[in-house]
Automatic annotation (TrEMBL):
Residues 59-210, 248-401 form the Cytochrome c domain. The keyword Magnesium does not apply. It comes from the Bacteria. Its main location: periplasm. The keyword Methyltransferase does not apply. One of its GO terms (molecular function) is peroxidase activity. Transmembrane segments: none annotated. Residues 1-17 form the signal peptide. Keywords: Heme, Iron, Metal-binding, Oxidoreductase, Periplasm, Peroxidase, Signal. It is found in: Periplasm. The lineage of its organism: Bacteria, Pseudomonadati, Pseudomonadota, Alphaproteobacteria, Hyphomicrobiales. This is Cytochrome c peroxidase. It holds the Pfam family CCP_MauG.
Amino acid sequence: MRCLARVATLAALAALALLGGCGKPQFSDAEKKTIASLALNTLPALKPDTTNQYADVPAAAALGSTLFFDVGMSLDGTVSCSTCHKIDRQFQDDLPQAVGVGRTNRRTMPLAGVARDPWFFWDGRRDSLWAQALTPLENPLEQAGNRAAFAHYIKKRFGERYERIFGPLPDLSVVPANASPLGTDAEKAAWKAMPADQADDVNRVFANIGKAIAAFERSIEPSQTRFDRFAIDLATGTKPEGDAAFSPEEVLGLKLFIGKANCVTCHNGPRFTDNSFHNTGVPPVNGLPPDRGRVDAVAQVQADPFNCFGKLRDGDASACRELRFMVKDGQQLVRAYKTPSLRGVADRPPYMHAGQFSSLDEVVAHYSKAPASVEGVSEVHPLNLSDRERAALVAFLKTLSE
C-alpha cells in the first residue's frame, strides 16, 4: 500500500510540475512561441494558383464539385474521386490502400488544406493540384478512363456548363471514342493515329477537367480543434477552460512533440507539415509492388505533360520555381515520402503511405525504436520513449482532431 501511495504522490507531483499552482500549463517563452506557430489562426490566406486561371472561379468550382462526385468519370461507371475521398471521412477512405477499379499500392490522403501543398501524392509526382486531379482519371487501378472518352463525356453531359467557364469546346466529332497516350494498346494506337491538333484539343479539355476539380478542392480547409483553442489561450495568457484545458498527460505530450521527441521538425506550421519528403524507416508491405518513394517520382513529374513547364499551364513560368529548383537526385530521396498533415490524424487510421500501422500507438512506437530503412537511410534516430511518454504523445495527437 505504501508503494502505491508513493507512486500516486509522484504522479501528482509530476502533474503539478506541468500545471503550475494556479492551474496554468507551464511553458518557456520559446515553447510558447513554437506552440503559437502551430495554431490554425496563423494559417495565411490561400495564395492564387497562377497555373490555373479558373482556380477561384465559383462556376469552375461548382463544375469541379459535380465531377468530383460523378461515377460517370470512370471506365465502368462505379468510381468517382469521392469513392476514395469520402466527404464524411476527411476526404479519405480508412483503407490501408485505396480501392477504385482495382486496389492501389498507396493510402488515400485527406484533402483539408491540400491546395497549399507544393507537391502532390505521397511521392510528389505531380506539381499542381489540377495536374494531380487528372492522374487518377487514367490510372487503371483508380478510375481507369482515357482522356478522349472524358472529353466526349464532358461535351455530352456538361457541354453548356463547360463552355460558360472555359469557352467553346473543340470539334470532337472525328476524335476516337477511346484514345490516350496511356491505357490499353488500342487506346495508345488510337492516340498515336490522331493529328497533333486533335490531340492538343483533347488535352486542353482534359486539363480543364483537372482545373475545375482543383477549384472545388481549394475550398476544403482544416477546422479548428481543441489544440487551437488551447494554443490561443496560451498565447493570450488566458487560463484554458472547458475543452480547451489540457490534461497533464496532454501537456506532457505537447512538450514531447516540440521537445524531446522532435516531431515538430517535420510536423510544423499550422498544418503540421513541412511539405517535404523524408525516409523514416517505414517498412514495405508484403505483396505490394516495389515502392521507392520520391526518388522515382522525380522523373515522373518532369515527364508529365501537364506539369508547370507544359503548354497547358496558365500564366508564365515564374510560377514554376518548385519544379525548376527541386532536388533531382541523392540518397535522401530513396524511400522518402511526404510529411502528412497531422490535423484530424486520430480519426483516420491506418497510417503511413501504405497503411503500415493500424494505430497511433504503433506509429509512436515506430519512431521510438527507429528501425533502419530497408533501402536508403532513415532520418530518424531512436527516441527510447517510456510507456508513459508514448501514451502522452498519443494523447496530445488526439487534441488535433475535433
